[in-house]
Specification:
Blueprint (H helix, E strand, L loop, with lengths): L4 H5 L5 H28 L4 H18 L7 E2 L5 H32 L11 H18 L1 H5 L10 H10 L6 H20 L5 H15 L7 H5 L16 H33 L5 H17 L6 E2 L1 H9 L6 H16 L1 H5 L3 H16 L4 H5 L3 H16 L2 H18 L13
Antiparallel strand pairs: 1-2
Helix pairs in contact: 2-3, 2-9, 2-13, 2-14, 2-16, 3-12, 3-14, 4-11, 4-12, 5-16, 5-18, 8-9, 8-16, 11-12, 11-13, 18-19
Length: 420
């Protein structure tokens, strides 16, 4: 079924449901704000673009999703491919590739391709997730350590070489802010998990930096003041040659958006006993990835951590996700200067913690206990993700996984990841 869940939930919607959804939406927005800014910066874009993506993409996904509680926005999984596309083709190329990915997802949803997630072996998902987490962590070292390395290369080995060459510029102030922010996030998540931990940690670090006039970069000092409204929609340059050139990137974006959104919906179903509609979910991701780039946004997908936060905060209908997007819009309209005061080492700390969560170290013992062929898939995908190319990693992992499954006579079964 391709019917959005919003239409079903409106039949018996009530004031108590709206109150719960509104409170959950505000809670999720407080989690999403620093994440969207940090993800956009790590992707080679600007903080404003990250917020626009969460507002436009998040609203469209909630309004059309096949899940009652899905929260959409930019996610860490896209950082690698987005950074590469911007470096090679500019922001205009990314906008075109994202819109093409949206069209691919709409076609996939129309043909009910959501069930094809069963063909992607779990070790491949784990491998490229850990690989992406590794790349995200490496991309944050420059701001986390306050290194003056200039523009570092995108590839892992040259990146590490450039950062090592700049080791003499290490800022102990930046390192201290990063370490303190990480510590506050981890401690508050353990002691006060219902608090808006990311906002508290980043705001505290930024206030302390401003109070003591610490020599660290802020969002405003590096990127300028944030605009106080949404940009006008515009189409990128479209030619046949450009469409062919951006097609591989579009397929990667579509794959990541489809897989992550479906995994997020599966996790959410387990948390509150729901049942998402895979085809409707793919259609929602398609619509969002067509609309968001028209406003200059990044690729968007269902965000597992933010969706889980929504469920835990009491969100039970798509209204919660729509409120989350409107709250971020309100912040952009009336409090852009506050966002500009956030210090970059604290935002780097947010992504370092995000990378740690993505890598799920508590599951590494389970990975070591896998069969030899599953370990091979995981290690191959991880290695290719970090040192080669995400497209190659996904293609090689899925192809080898299908060959091994056929060779061992396995039957493909749908797997469901636990909430990490």
């Amino acid at each position: 079924m391709r019917r959005p869940k919003l239409l079903d939930t409106m039949r018996d919607y009530s004031w108590p449901l709206f109150r719960a959804d509104a409170l959950a939406g505000v809670s999720v927005a407080l989690v999403a704000l620093p994440l969207c800014i940090a993800i956009a910066i790590a992707s080679g874009s600007t903080p404003f673009v990250g917020l626009v993506t969460a507002i436009i993409g998040g609203f469209v996904i909630s309004a059309t999703s096949g899940s009652r509680v899905q929260i959409g926005g930019p996610t860490g999984a896209f950082i690698v491919v987005v950074y590469g596309v911007i470096q090679d083709h500019g922001m205009d190329g990314l906008i075109l590739a994202t819109a093409m990915a949206g069209i691919i997802l709409v076609i996939a949803g129309a043909f009910r391709a959501g069930r094809l997630i069963a063909l992607v072996p779990e070790p491949v998902i784990d491998g490229f997730t850990i690989g992406i987490a590794t790349i995200i962590a490496a991309s944050q070292l420059q701001d986390a350590l306050g290194l003056s390395a200039g523009k570092v290369p995108a590839d892992m080995i040259p990146k590490i070489e450039a950062l090592w060459a700049a080791r003499d510029t290490l800022s102990f102030v930046a390192l201290g802010i990063t370490a303190a922010t990480v510590a506050v996030i981890l401690l508050l998540r353990r002691w006060r998990p219902r608090w808006p931990v990311l906002v508290i940690a980043v705001a505290a670090a930024s206030l302390a930096s401003g109070w003591f006039h610490l020599p660290v970069d802020t969002v405003a000092s590096r990127f300028g003041a944030l605009p106080s409204g949404l940009p006008a929609p515009h189409w990128p340059e479209i030619t046949q040659a450009r469409l062919i050139e951006m097609l591989p990137s579009a397929f990667v974006i579509a794959f990541l958006a489809g897989v992550e959104s479906l995994l997020s919906a599966i996790v959410a179903d387990r948390m509150f006993g729901g049942q998402h509609r895979p085809s409707a979910e793919l259609l929602a991701q398609g619509y969002a990835n067509i609309v968001a780039p028209l406003f200059g946004g990044l690729p968007v997908t269902g965000a597992i951590a933010r969706t889980a936060t929504n469920v835990r905060a009491g969100g039970r209908t798509p209204i919660a996700g729509m409120v989350h997007a409107l709250v971020i819009l309100a912040v952009l309209l009336v409090a852009g200067d506050l966002a500009g005061a956030l210090v970059l080492p604290a935002l780097a700390a947010v992504l370092l913690v995000t990378a740690l969560n993505m890598a799920e170290p508590e599951k590494w013992r389970e990975h070591l206990a896998l069969s030899w062929d599953d370990r091979l898939l995981l290690i191959l995908t991880l290695t290719l993700t970090v040192f080669a190319d995400l497209t190659i990693a996904i293609g090689a992992g899925v192809a080898l996984g299908l060959v091994l499954r056929w060779w061992k006579g396995r039957v493909a079964t749908l797997w469901t990841p636990r909430d990490g």
